[in-house]
């Protein structure tokens, strides 16, 4: 059975995006390197004068039997060697030679790397409509900025999670976009609250719903399959695009347990089990082409590679390419040659092996963090919420139990600030939850959503188990736990 075509949603493009024209210079690039063609049309420096003969990288080899963090040995390593001269590259692999990758090139990304990423996307998400595609980017932060430019204008409103990545909020604020919070609980967006919010909306409906739905930053929540289906249905009903920002998607872990025997039984044995254990993405539910997925290697390979990709319906991606032509031009050639070389040698199965290794590592690190919270934090005032995805965890604290709560004006934020400072004095930095809070308003304002007053007394701090060795993680949480004990006189 053939897949349907994406729905025409071009009315959701911004005026800026609609006005962008094809670059005539970029359109001529298709003739570059064409046999028999003398290309004198572009400002392309001769690759003879690129001072790099080759790049060489070494990585562990699939299936990473000794773990993904094991020392690379001569007996168990993958060597990526990419030359400037195409004829010197190993014909077994689809390498992107340096004479091409370091040149002004395809704004969409190198064809070989695009092909690999499309296979990967189809393997993971099985996109249910026909005319989807992907383009390369400089990571999800740049992708988000490009999406905002393409679909919104100053004064527009967009939906964001009640607590979300502060840089994503700042990118929107700088463009004059109102970020309207959606209610959340420990499992992420609450579809029933969102439905009521949209039904009662005052003024022009939002075009975009921005979500970090797996391993959410900062809360660590993971939106269930049922909730994703409900949110997607609301997006259809209210004609909204879902921007699925998913750098943590493959950092999904085994459920937390304090039972050591149960932990020993947790294991994903095969690629099939791994894929089945992944929560369905919004992209995998999208039958209309109203999901734009932002993907990245920042959390699976290395953030400094500054490489990602955007998946969506082809008509939207064409507009994003027009924007990239006059901004980033093309992702880093070094990154494209290196990552493509690695992926071509690992293959799709090898990359899955790597991702399965990450699952095991993050499950262990999460366990160490949550065990430490149970060990060092006062249970009289804290609530511990073990995450099932991502690299963050939160500690929720009842501010009303602070001995100086009345003296601090019964302000949870002042309690939060006091705890933050005490944590710094003790030598551990955790991020206050208020730093991630979205507080935008529609104009005119919507009717307020009633909230349980008891919930207003809670604050939270965000930590990560990804940034330091495990002994340092435990010691850091011990010190912050001391700070919380001292603050509450426990």
UniProtKB/TrEMBL annotation:
- Name its species: Candidozyma auris (Yeast)
From the broadest rank down, the organism's phylogenetic lineage runs:
Eukaryota, Fungi, Dikarya, Ascomycota, Saccharomycotina
Task: Name the UniProt key words of this record, in alphabetical order.
Answer: Aminotransferase, Cytoplasm, Pyridoxal phosphate, Transferase
Q: Which N-terminal stretch is annotated as signal sequence?
A: none
Q: Kindly report the protein's main subcellular placement as a broad class.
A: cytoplasm
Q: Which InterPro entries match?
A: Aminotransferase_I/II_large, Class-I_PLP-dep_aminotransf, PyrdxlP-dep_Trfase, PyrdxlP-dep_Trfase_major
Q: Which family does it belong to?
A: Belongs to the class-I pyridoxal-phosphate-dependent aminotransferase family.
Q: Which residues form the Aminotransferase class I/classII large domain?
A: 99-438
What is the protein name stated in its UniProt record?
aromatic-amino-acid transaminase
- Cell location: Cytoplasm
Chemical reaction(s) catalysed:
an aromatic L-alpha-amino acid + 2-oxoglutarate = an aromatic oxo-acid + L-glutamate
Give this protein's Gene Ontology molecular function annotations: 2-aminoadipate transaminase activity; aromatic-amino-acid transaminase activity; pyridoxal phosphate binding
Write down the required cofactor(s): pyridoxal 5'-phosphate
- Give the record's GO CC terms: cytoplasm
**One GO term (biological process):** aromatic amino acid family catabolic process
Mind telling me which Pfam families this protein's record contains?
Answer: Aminotran_1_2
Q: What is its EC number?
A: 2.6.1.57
């Amino acid at each position: 059975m053939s897949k349907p075509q994406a729905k025409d949603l071009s009315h959701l493009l911004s005026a800026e995006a609609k006005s962008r024209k094809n670059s005539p210079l970029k359109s001529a690039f298709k003739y570059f390197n064409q046999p028999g063609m003398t290309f004198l049309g572009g400002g392309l420096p001769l690759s003879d004068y690129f001072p790099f003969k080759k790049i060489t990288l070494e990585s562990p080899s699939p299936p990473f039997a000794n773990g993904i963090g094991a020392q690379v040995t001569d007996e168990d390593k993958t060597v990526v060697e990419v030359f400037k001269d195409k004829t010197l590259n190993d014909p077994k692999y689809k390498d992107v030679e340096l004479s091409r990758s370091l040149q002004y090139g395809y704004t969409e990304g190198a064809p070989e790397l695009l092909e690999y990423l499309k296979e990967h996307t189809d393997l993971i998400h099985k996109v249910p409509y026909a005319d989807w595609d992907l383009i390369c980017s400089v990571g999800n932060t740049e992708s988000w900025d490009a999406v905002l430019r393409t679909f919104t204008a100053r004064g527009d409103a967009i939906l964001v999670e009640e607590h979300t990545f502060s840089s994503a909020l700042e990118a929107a604020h700088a463009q004059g976009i109102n970020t309207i919070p959606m209610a959340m609980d420990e499992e992420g967006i609450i579809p029933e609250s969102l439905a009521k919010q949209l039904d009662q909306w005052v003024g022009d409906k939002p075009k975009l719903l921005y979500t970090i739905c797996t391993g959410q930053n900062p809360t660590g929540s993971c939106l269930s399959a049922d909730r994703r289906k409900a949110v997607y249905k609301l997006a259809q009903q209210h004609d909204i695009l879902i921007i699925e920002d998913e750098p943590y998607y493959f950092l999904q872990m085994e459920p937390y347990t304090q039972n050591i025997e149960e932990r020993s039984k947790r294991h994903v044995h095969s690629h099939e089990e791994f894929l089945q254990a992944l929560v369905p993405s919004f992209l995998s539910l999208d039958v209309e082409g109203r999901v734009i997925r932002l993907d990245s290697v920042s959390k699976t390979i290395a953030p400094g590679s500054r490489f990602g990709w955007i998946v969506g319906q082809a008509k939207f991606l064409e507009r994003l390419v027009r924007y990239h032509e006059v901004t980033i031009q093309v992702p880093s050639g070094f990154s494209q040659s290196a990552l493509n070389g690695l992926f071509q040698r690992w293959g799709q199965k090898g990359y899955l092996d790597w991702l399965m290794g990450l699952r095991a590592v993050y499950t262990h690190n999460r366990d160490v963090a949550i065990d430490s919270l149970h060990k060092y934090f006062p249970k009289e005032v804290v609530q511990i919420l073990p995450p099932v995805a991502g690299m963050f965890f939160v500690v929720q604290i009842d501010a009303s139990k602070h001995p100086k709560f009345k003296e601090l004006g019964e302000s949870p934020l002042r309690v939060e600030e006091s705890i933050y400072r005490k944590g710094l004095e003790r030598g551990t930095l955790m991020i206050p939850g208020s730093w991630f809070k979205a507080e935008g308003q529609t104009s005119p304002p919507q009717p307020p959503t009633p909230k349980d007053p008891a919930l207003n007394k809670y604050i939270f701090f965000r930590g990560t188990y990804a940034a330091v060795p495990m002994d340092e993680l435990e010691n850091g949480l011990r010190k912050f736990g001391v700070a919380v004990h001292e603050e509450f006189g426990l």
